[in-house]
Every structure is written in structure tokens, then in C-alpha cells.
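cron nightly-structures :: item 1 of 1
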Amino acid sequence: MQGFHVAEMAVPSLRFDIVIWGGSLSAPAAALAAARNAPGARVLLVEPTDWLGGQATSQGVSAIDNAWFDPGRTAMAGDPDSHYAKDYLEWLRRMNEPGVPGTGLSPNGTSWVSREVFDPRSAAWVLDRMIAEQPNITLMKLTTLKRAEVRHGRIVALTLIERTPIAPYKPFDDFLSDEMADWYSTADSHRFAKVVHRVEAVDPVRGFTVIDASELGDAIVLSGAAYTQGAELMTEELDSSGQLPAMDDRASQATVFVFCMTDSEVPHAEEDLKTHWPQFDSYCAEQEASYFSLRHFTWEKVWTYRRLRTEGKLHDFDAVHRGDVSMQNWEPGNDYPYSSLLLDTASTAAQAHGDWLGAVDHDTLAGCELHAVAWYFWMKKNRPTSWDTTFPCGSHPLNMMGTRHGLARFPYVRCARRIVGPGNFRILERHWKNSESPDYDNMPSHRYYDAVGIGSYAADVHPIRNQRGLKPGFERPAPFYIPYRALLSGNVANLMACGKNMAQTFITNSAYRLHPIEWASGSAAGTAAGLLYTTNAAEGAANTPECFLRTHDALRSLQRAVRQNSPIGWKAWNDAEFPEAPFEPHVS
């Protein structure tokens, strides 16, 4: 990487055995699993914001799309929680313990899209406590990844930039589009004092394992790992020579800045919310004419769709009440459909070899912010209530986003950079069982021989305008599995990925991106990293995560360890402890 020379800065090294570069909900899951499975390992969890939890906290999507699960369906086997990891359920349960800030976990029936809705402030606080209870985890918040050094196909060092707020500035007082470039600069600013850290392995011979559990895939790009982004144009399949299919790398899912609404004690125009954008009124008029809509729903149904708190009767989704808190994440509302958050791959590569800034399109980021506030005013204008609304921000007690401006700390990223596994492996749509199949309700999707997790969600695409590429052929795949191969890099030996960064196509990502599935993939990746450390420490070896695919016994030991916390099969169908498909050893 040019333009940034760590050696010249004489930065002392921090030494760890497992490094998790975070920002998604899979990151704390990976850290907890690594720490449990390797209590002797030094685990570093790096979080770019000041809230752990990704889409559930810093991105504000704290109403999980799971209400369409029918507990009476075969998949649930009479136990709607049987598909969740144990520590994921613990996280939810602890949101209502004494002393938790915010309003905690709300009762089922608060929102019609979700069984589990909660205050993001509560969720982030509990994650902090769960991480702090593991003595071998070091947590670095407000820290970004700037560089990865690779030798002989392995990451040997990482460069991090840690920032400390300079009073009176608080993180996210400014809009993210104004603040984010500051994250990647080594220079002190009026917002932050910076410290540059170099991270290396405790034992240089054994090395360390790096897990990219982020939203932007910085570790993937900076290490030179093969990855894809965007949508496959014509096919998900490899060609006859094993090459990846052609992609539209600027195709994406719509990015959205989430916010909350509640009632106002007095009618007010909230003109101060508009002052950041001179063109605000004209933009609102343009969106009202061409995009904003309730679709076929009522205003009340949009309000209760992701309602986080209610003063009314549960399961009454046609009534809104003073004291309600409605989280807004709506299409066609604050979903931003006009451009991708990620720069194209050529621009990303150029930035990786120059001055790495996350390869984010800051025009898109700024557009998302304007668009979100415009949607708020559309909802305010079209309210059927006798009372006015307010946009909780700053010190408002129901400002669940916790920022000065009231938007989430980070946009909800539905579609990220995705690693490519060994042999160009990715999870393909063709491994799903179609909802139109006659046995859809009686069997799950293809069970991979190396399954290390499960999930179930719709193929839910929120496309941007004018993008090319494949779209789901059906809405709901049958319950599916997470293969271990999807967590591995095909060309960087000690790099793993989880969450939306794992090896998958655009279409499969649209279903695998749900909160508990992110957690499951993180738990599997962390378990593998922990077992690998224990094995290497005992043997004085330098095995890499791919070693669990080399023998039947190694894979089974990994799957057995994952099952201690997170299911790898569906109770209704998977009587056998492990998949029955023949073992397919992989040799690098």
C-alpha cells in the first residue's frame, strides 16, 4: 500500500492470537466463540463505531424480520427458538435485566414484522457486558483498519487507527458523511486524537487468525483476498474453467439510514432538522412525486411495522398511540434506491494501493442521510393522528439511535463485499429448496457436508435503480444451512469471513443477511479460530482454518464444537448428529 508507511512511524506492536475486525452482529458472536473455545488465546475485537452489534444496534435495525416464521411449521418442531444460538438467546434475555439502559426488549406483539424488538441502546450495552465477561478478549472501539501486510499468502500484520473524541465533540455529533473520512486519517482533527497501532501474532511462527466480520470488508480487500460485490449478471455458476461469473459490481441492495419517530407534546414544524440541506424542500417534493409511498398499507401499518415500544394493546397493528416509538426502515421510504454505497472494484483496488478510506461512495452516504430525513417529514405530513410527531435526537429520552442528529450511527448495509472460498466456492441459489416445491414444508434445503450453522429467511432484495443482474426466482427458500467453506478465503490462508462478508452470491446474501444468521456464522468462525489456536499451541504448528476440511475427524470435531452453542441442523429433519452426505476432503 502506497502513501502510508507504518515502519517510518516506529509504531510498537500489539500481539494477539485471533483478531476480529468488526462492525456487524457477527463480530461479537465470533469473539465470544473464540474466547470460549480458546481460553488461553489473546483475542482482539475491533469495532469501528462505539456500539457493538452492527445492524441490531449501530445501524438501528432492532426489529428482526422473523414474524413470518410460523411456530407450527415443521421447521420449528414446536420450539421457535431451536434455530438460535444459545448466546444469541442470552443476549436477548439480558436486555430486560435490572440496570440495562433504554427500554430493553419489548413484548412480542409490539411490531408486526418481528417477535423480537428492542431499544438499540439496551442491546449495545448488553453486548459490552458479555464481551467484558470474557477475560481474554480485548475490545477496541472507535478503531478502523488501515492496512494489512501479507507474506507468502498469510496476513502477518494489521495497522489500526484508534480515535479518541476531543471534548466537546462526541462521536456522531456530525453526520457520518462528514465524519467518516476522519476515521481513516492518522492525523489528529478537531473531533479526534489518533493513535496508530500495529497488530502482529503472539507467536510469529504459528501466526494468527483474522476474521473479517465487518460491513465494508476492509480486511478482505486490504489482504488481497479474492472477493465479489454486486450482482451476478447471467448466472451464479462458475464457467468450465472454474472462473467466477461476470458481475455488475455497482449493483447492490438499497442502503438506509434508520431513525425513530414518536409523538410530540405540542405541534411543531421542526424546521431546524432541515438546515443541513439548502435543497431540502425541493428534494422532498421530488421524492413525494416519484418515490415515497405507503404501497398498499395504511399509515398506521407503516408506523407499527417496526414499532419498538407501545403504550397500547399488543398485536393491535391498526392502532398507534402517544408514547409509541416507531423505527423507520421502509421501502419505498427511507430506503435509498439511487446508488451503491460501495465504490466499484477498480476504484476500490486503487484506494487499497493508495490511501485506504473504506472505498465508500460518500455521495451515496450523504444522499442516504438527506433521504431519511425527507421520509420523516413525509410521514409527519401525512399522519392521520390528532397529535403531531417528533424526530427524537440529541438528549431526547426516546432517542434510541443515541446521536445528536437522530439518525443511526451507521447505515443499514444489506449487501457487502463477499469473500470467495476455496476453489471459488460460494453459496448458490441452486442449493435452496424452492417454495414452489411440493415437499417445501417437509424438508429443508441442501444440507452441506460441512454445515456449521442454519438459517431461514426470505430472499429479500431491495434493489437500487437501474441495476443489472440476477434477482431471486422465488421469495422464500426452505430453511437452509451455512457451509464452513463459505467462511474461508481461497487465497489468504489465515483469513476468515462471516456475516454478509462470507462466500455467497448476491441472491443468497439476500436471505443469509438476517440478524440470527449473521450471529450463527460468526459463532462458527470464532469456534474454528479458537479450536485452531488450541491445536496449534499444543502441536507448535501453523495450521490454517482450512485444516478442518482435510480430514473427516477434523471436520467432525469442529461441527461438534459449534453445536455446543449454535445448531448446525434442523431438529425436524436432522436426526443424525452430522450431515449424512459423503465427506469431500479439500486439499489446498
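cron nightly-structures :: done
Confidence is low (pLDDT under 50) at residues 1-8.
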